[in-house]
Amino acid sequence: MKSLYFKTTGQAREYIQSNPDKGIVLFTTVENVKEMSTFATEHVILCSTAGEYTSEGFKEGVISGFAYQRDLVDVIEIKSPAILSIDELQSGYNKVRNNKNAFMFILYDGLSGQEESVMTTLFFMDEKFKVIGGSSGDYVKFKETAVYIGSRKVNGVALYFNWPRRTQLLKENLYYTTGQRLLVTDAEPLNRLVRTFNNRPAAVEYANVLGIPENQLEKAFMNNPLGKVIKDSTYITSPMKVNPDKSITFYSQIAPNTYVDVLQPLDVHQCFQETLNAMEFKPAFILSVHCILRSLKFKSENTWKSLDDKLLSVSRNQAGFISYGEQIHNKHFNQTMVLLAFE
């Protein structure tokens, strides 16, 4: 696997045309994706982002990605709804299911609100099979994201990699529970909307638990998201916005009649180091997906350089992007980094 980093679409075009035998995945702005779709061939996957991760670390407005050996990979379009693609998805899985190094990489429309539906469509997979993915972004405009297979715009794409060497899937989040919980008493999961917590307007009760004025709540989302602790692992559901009726829209679904924990941040530098310590081998390549709210936090606190220094110290052969949601195994969540290390 070879990381790719281009500063212009012209450089990307030259590489694509010079390497017709390679499979290529590229991450960049919506505008660049649309331009590159005019010359991309079927072996090129394009995904819009809210930032790019490169061999030089975090960047914005560039083109990152990777090239791979095409005979090791099955590329499958994910239609809407995803159940329409189940035969192809299951067939691709059956080809690699007995390879412990194999994995699926998913890219899906980050404004569709359908990621949970996509993940439940993968019910046929063994729960230990490696799945990593990210939702396409548009630099926080929330107007249009883009995923392409060559010149065709699609809802999503799944790539099954029948990888011959060791791979390791890792998840890093920066939060732990405050011990305070909210009961979701009125919600519309399909719209990712929560109307009430503890039978009070969602924004009112959320701010009350944090002990802050209601008009300061959106500023607290970055450091105090909500989440669920499952088997000692925290899965984050990030709030997107407070609506005029004091309901809250989230980046992923929250079911009614369930509890969610109010979270608080850990020491980010310690978290970075713990992730590196968890690596079972020195990686030759790293693929990573980083949540938009995580990126905004790092930008506001000037923390990206610290993460870059940590990650790039183990391998400079890296690619990834800033997403509107992350996927790992059978779950979709937020405010997390998911990465896959390749031996």
Automatic annotation (TrEMBL):
Q: This chain belongs to which protein, by name?
A: FIST domain-containing protein
Cleaved signal peptide residues: none
Q: Which InterPro entries match?
A: FIST_C, FIST_domain_N
**Where is the FIST domain positioned along the sequence?**
19-201
Q: Which organism is it from?
A: Paenibacillus bovis
Lineage of origin: Bacteria, Bacillati, Bacillota, Bacilli, Bacillales
In this protein, which residues make up the domain named FIST C-domain? Answer: 202-330
